[in-house]
Amino acid sequence: MTEPDAWPSRFHVAPAKVTAYLLNPNHRDGAAKCRFLAAFGFTPGNPDVMIGALLDHGQRPNFRGFLPGYRATKLDFEGPLAARAGVDPQVRTVWQVDDTDPSRTARFITLKPLPRPRP
Fold first, then answer.
1. Strands laid side by side in the 72-80 sheet
2. Cβ–Cβ under 8 Å, residues 67 and 22
3. What separation in angstroms does the CA of 54 have from each of 78, 79, 98, 110, 118?
C-alpha cells in the first residue's frame, strides 16, 4: 500500500494462524492466548468461529490507525471480540498489507488481550 490511508480491499485470516497458533494450547508463544480465548468460548475444535470473530474485529469502528512496517503497512484495531461465552473480551488485533501485494489484502498477524478498564 503506497498510501497509508488506502483501506485494504479485503481481510484474510490464514486457518493455520488460528489452529497452529491462537488456539493451540501447546504452542510456545500461543498457549497463553489459547487459555485467554478458551475462557470466552473459543475452542480448537471450531476454528471457524475464531476466524469469523477476527474478521468482524477488523472493521472500521475498531480501527485505531496505520503503522509503518518493513515493506508493509500495519493496521491496528482495538475493541470487543465477539465471543460465544456472553462476555466480549477487549483485544487488539494487528493486520498487515504488504507493499508488493497488488490485491491490497490485509492479513491477520496477531491478537493481544487489552487490560480490563477500571471501574
1. 10-12, 105-113, 90-98, 72-80, 63-69
2. no
3. 11, 11, 19, 10, 25
Length of the chain, in residues = 119
Query: Residue 26: what residue type?
Result: N
Residue-wise pLDDT tens digits, 21-54:
999 999 998 999 999 999 999 999 999 999 999 9
Burial string for 38-57 (b: 16+ CB within 10 Å, else e) reads eebebebeebebbbebbeeb
SS3 per-residue string spanning the chain: CCCCCCCCCEEECCHHHHHHHHCCCCCCCCHHHHHHHHCCCCCCCCHHHHHHHHHHHCCHHHEEEEEEECCEEEEEEEEECCCCCCCCCEEEEEEEEECCCCCCEEEEEEEEECCCCCC
pTM: 0.91
